[in-house]
Amino acid sequence: MTTRESLLTTQGKIFQPPTSTGMADVLKSLNLLETLKESIDNNKLSDVKDAVEDLLISRINLAVLGDREDRKTTLINSLSGLGPEDEGAAPSPSPVAPEELASYPNPKHPDFRLWDLPAVPSATPFEPEGYLERVKFFRYNAVLMTFTQTPHPNTVKVFLEARSSQRQIVYFILLATDTDTEKGLEEKRKASMETLKSEGVAHLKVYLVRPSTLEKFDFPDLLEDMGRDLPEIRANALLLALPTLTPTLVTQKKDAFKALVWAAASLSGGVSAIPVPFVASMVDSSVAMRILTKAQLSLCLDNESVERLARQRGIEPTRLKGLRTCELSVEVTKGEVKKRLAAAEKELATVSSKLVEMAMPRHARSVSRSFAAMLQALNGAIDEMAADAEKVVAVALGEGK
Fold it and tell me: DSSP string covering 38-84, please?
């Protein structure tokens, strides 16, 4: 297995917050520390570059299966952070023929694509293999099987057929309305579990999800399970593309970007060893711009995302916009990025020498200056942007209660 493959095939959770031991834990969760150190030590900078590219651009296809009705459409749009009036949103009623597929790429994260799969036919006899082939079931990284009462037996047959392949990640989702009572929802969940059990499905969860407010009910648990079930690079792509629904998601996104920053800083340190003037600085600012731009969009700090969130939660947009105190939260500019990199160069004395020694191979410590500067500049920026996102989410959730 190549170094790059070892970076991308690890199974793992959606990123958990680091403990007191700091960045080493974040990197350990990504399986980057040892592989990147090995790559740099062996002068395999192309492997490090590929790893950074794959963390920045990683495709994920998420399918939502079920009847085409308002709750399912709302779920698809909420997963992209969109309202029904936003450009790129799934329309309701759907103009797509009942038996056809519909695709909805995320406007801000084109590597995240949502698929609207038609409901499983209720006719008998029913051959699940035909349905799986018609909707191209196995090309999706995960499938959400939605229903509003109990899953139809034919849907369960599709699940069992897909599960038998041992290469498909499928979840049952009970969609709630804003008017459903807690008692009524639990009764529906219980009936759903009994239906699944009678059809031969054991030890399976039914996730209760309210499409209009995903932070409620079981959606956070669903995300945690998806992070564990998906290959790590796909879990990372899903995490970065989802809207900032909860403070926990903001923290997880921050930690994911810090791991990406470490990889980019390692690349910077390696490039600095090449005796070509200005090469490192050009690479640093270019990669830093890409990382911070993606972080701004992932944390939903750009003007369009903040205005959309304010509209959805009935808040004056200027109130949420005013919570952004970091310049990079408002706009990622080359001038601001270069200024931060230059400032970090002057403040290298504040960087722990232990961190540099841990991160860089012995023969490369002479080029650790570039590594440390980029690490300090970008980590500081990510911390500030995440703090802004936490404030925005807190106010939005508070107003939405």
Answer: HHHHTT-HHHHHHHHHHHHS--EEEEEES--SHHHHHHHHHHTT--T
Sequence-distant (≥ 6) Cβ neighbours of residue 292 within 8 angstroms: 328, 332, 337, 378, 381, 382, 385
pLDDT, average across residues 347-368: 54
Percent of the chain at pLDDT > 70 equals 76
| Antiparallel, parallel or unpaired: β 142-147 and 60-65 | parallel
Is the pLDDT assigned to residue 158 strictly greater than 50? yes
The two tokens of residue 11 are: 């199974």
Between CA 366 and CA 272 the distance in angstroms is: 9
Enumerate domains of the chain plus CATH numbers: 3-56+244-400 (no CATH), 60-236 (3.40.50.300)
CB 357 within 8 A of CB 269: no
State pLDDT tens for residues 63-96. 999 999 999 999 999 999 999 989 889 998 888 8
| Per-residue model confidence as pLDDT tens digits over 231-279 | 888 888 899 999 999 999 999 999 989 888 887 887 665 544 433 333 3
What one-character-per-residue DSSP string does 68-127 give?
Answer: -SHHHHHHHHHHTT--TTSTTPPPSS--S-TTS-EEEE-SS-TTEEEEEEPPPP--SS--
Q: How far is CA 2 from CA 75, 154, 172, 223, 353, in A?
A: 39, 42, 36, 30, 30
Q: Please return the burial class of 92, using the count of CB atoms within 10 Å of its CB with bins 0-12, 13-18 and 19+.
A: middle
Please enumerate in sequence order all residues whose Cβ is within 8 A of that of 41, keeping only pairs 6 or more positions apart, or say none: 361, 363, 364
* CA–CA gap between residue 358 and residue 344 (Å, rounded): 19
Give me the mean pLDDT over the 204-220 stretch.
93
The pTM score is: 0.81
